[in-house]
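Help! Submission page says 'invalid entity' but I think these are all valid:
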Amino acid sequence: MPNLSGKMTKFHSTLLYNEAEHDHGQPILDVRHLTVRYNGIAALDRLTFHLHAGERVAVVGPNGAGKSTLFKAIVGALPVIEGEINIFGSHPSGHVCIGYVPQRNNVDWRFPVSVEDVVMMGRIAKIGLFGWPRALDRQRVQSALETVHLAPLAKRQIAQLSGGQQQRMFIARALAQESELMLMDEPLSGLDAPSQEDLLTLLDELKAQNVTILVATHDLQQAATHFERVMLLNRHIVAFGAPAQVLTNEHLANAYGGGTLQVIGDACCEDEPQP
Amino acid sequence: MSDFLLQPLHYDFMLRALAASVMVAIVCAVIGTYIVLRGMAFFGDALAHTILPGVAVGYLLSGSDRGALFWWALGTSVLASLGIGAVSKRGGIKEDTAIGIIFAGMFALGIALISTVRSYAVDLTHFLFGDVLGVSNGDLIRTGLFAALILLLVFLFYKELLAISFDSTLAVTLRLPVNALNNLLLVLIAVTVAITMQAVGVALMVAMLITPPATASLLTKRLPVMMGLAAIFGAASAILGLYFSYYTNIASGAAIVLTATAFFIITLLTQKK
């Protein structure tokens, strides 16, 4: 069967799980002139910014501002982008250090996997082709679960977790992946106040481990109080810097149009439409 | 009672039929688990129907030689699988509409080709609904080899196939070759379809792919257990269905599928909500 064996040879050679060197003199994330188009219309227009290791940054903006698109471009899930993205000075395709925490409503919660199974998925690149989890991988999973306080629930099917627990499970997966940059898409949306507090406390703990965190959020107040820098996005970067300098009435009016006052403090849980 | 069970086994054709249908039932259950979890049931049904013109060309060229027909089925199946996979990635037309157009058109082409042969009705029935009692020793060896190969590949790429099925963005961040893995899964489905054709035929094949895994999914929340249970339901359906067919003269493919359907309905009804 020539068809299959040809495919397998090519397949094997692309699956090497090589990791790029980290040049720590370079920013952990360096984005230059990033433009993403859907059907010719720019969903992101010439974004240029960089993040330093250990920073905690919130991305805010109205629905459809391109927050999810930005994250997908950074992880490399979009086939075509214009501009340049570098992780520690080299192309993202060589890095497995980017952890992605998906929006909860983009996950198939009926999938037959346990919490532990999902966190172990973060180890796949480290385990390598044809490999199976070793003692080290199980240790990493266990300590990731302990960090997010989910160890007692390791054997649960994932639909049996609360919203906050589901979010923390994906953070544990990113930890098991040994992520240095974590992208979280609306992690606070739809969570009750205590769960939001738990999650923000967890972000503090991650900061202590020097993990760089980029969080998309609707909640301007949380962005102002829990993040060192805020990016105000509406297809282009309206403003980027310390919360007090970014979240001004003038900038917000620019990003959201009128009605800014209603938007402030509205922990909206609507989905960004997927282009 | 023991006579009831043993009597069919005196016939070599029954032994071969049992061996072949149990093997394909297990492979269908394992591959079908991915089909069910990824919501690809319509794709599986379409793919099974789409191989008919390939089988028809083989039939016109080499008559009803089973060996030749198998290779025609396999080639068409792999091409159609990757082709449908490519079509469904393009925008323009909705995915299920595009698949529907291709599969109905190809199925019609197959029937048209076969109908050019006089006295085609018997052979067409075999292609549509299976001919498991006609399995030869050669068919059995071929089925066994391909079944083993499919199960081996699922085992080797277990964690990668899990990652692309559960969360393709994660697979990207792990730098897995997502396209190649998706194509691997499409090829595995295609080979499964080719080896299953003789047991239940193209028209009923989707039942072998999705009914046992769907039954298993009612009973477990762990993937490996789901695959194992699905394989047990599939194999049991094959054995019970063949006995049923032997004693009642019901068509064997239909009997196997009806048994699998009965397992599903019973499981569904006995589930506590």
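Support: the input was valid. A stray whitespace character was the problem, and the output above is from the cleaned input. Chain B touches chain A at residues 37, 74-75, 78, 156, 159-160, 162-163, 165-170, 172-177, 180, 183-184, 187, 191, 217, 220-223, 225-226 (CB under 8 Å).
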